[in-house]
């Protein structure tokens, strides 16, 4: 007996009343960790696509929900995603406009400071011409850079909007395909339930009919009177 207990203690790596029943390597947690590690090896785009497919499949796993309920849920989700996207786009645009404004104000302060400092100095006409030509050149270059940044920003925003719309369109098409299959399964399940209910009701009617027939047969029998004792 002692030998057996020692053997068990060696198998688990611990002994005593608080020792686990099995070694840690046999724990189911290891399997979950292995799955988690395996999941990490899947590319992010593939993993996200799989998660989205699983999410939509889960939406249509309960046949007790009407197809309209399922579609309404999907529509609500899309609405929230569109609102979130628009909100993020607005924040991005506001931040860009704020940065552009701050840079323009800083540039204007620098130009004003340079003109003020230059005005207090004795300069020749050529020096004054060169100075103001340089300021004008810097201003044109600054405006050109700002316009280029704005054009790039607007192009990036259009790409983001297009990518989002394409994504929503693709997911809607994917949902519609799954939803058509769900409608078919829902109708088949509804018909099967109706058939089972009809069969149960028919069985109940037949049982009641049989009981009524037996009762009618008994009712038609001649009554039997028990003779009174003492006669």
UniProtKB/TrEMBL annotation:
Ranges of compositional bias, category Basic and acidic residues: 95-108, 123-165, 194-205
Name of this chain's protein: Uncharacterized protein
Chain residue ranges for the region called Disordered: 95-165, 194-231
Domain of life: Bacteria
Compositionally skewed regions (Polar residues) per UniProt: 109-119, 221-231
Organism: Bdellovibrio bacteriovorus
């Amino acid at each position: 007996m002692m030998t057996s207990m020692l053997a068990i203690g060696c198998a688990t790596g611990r002994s005593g009343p608080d020792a686990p029943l099995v070694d840690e390597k046999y724990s189911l947690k290891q399997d979950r960790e292995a799955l988690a590690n395996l999941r990490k090896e899947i590319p992010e785009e593939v993993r996200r696509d799989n998660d989205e497919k699983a999410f939509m499949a889960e939406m249509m796993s309960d046949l007790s929900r009407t197809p309209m309920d399922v579609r309404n849920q999907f529509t609500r989700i899309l609405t929230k995603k569109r609102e979130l996207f628009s909100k993020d786009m607005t924040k991005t645009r506001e931040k860009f406009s704020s940065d552009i404004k701050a840079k323009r104000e800083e540039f204007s302060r620098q130009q004003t400071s340079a003109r003020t400092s230059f005005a207090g100095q004795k300069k020749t006409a050529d020096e004054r011409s060169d100075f103001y030509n340089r300021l004008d050149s810097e201003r044109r270059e600054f405006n050109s850079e700002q316009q280029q940044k704005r054009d790039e920003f607007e192009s990036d925003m259009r790409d983001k909007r297009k990518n989002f719309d394409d994504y929503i369109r693709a997911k809607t098409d994917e949902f519609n395909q799954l939803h058509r299959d769900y409608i078919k399964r829902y109708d088949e399940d509804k018909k099967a339930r109706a058939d089972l209910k009809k069969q149960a009701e028919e069985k109940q009617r037949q049982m009641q009919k049989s009981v009524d027939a037996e009762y009618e047969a008994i009712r038609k029998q001649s009554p039997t009177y028990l003779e009174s004792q003492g006669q």
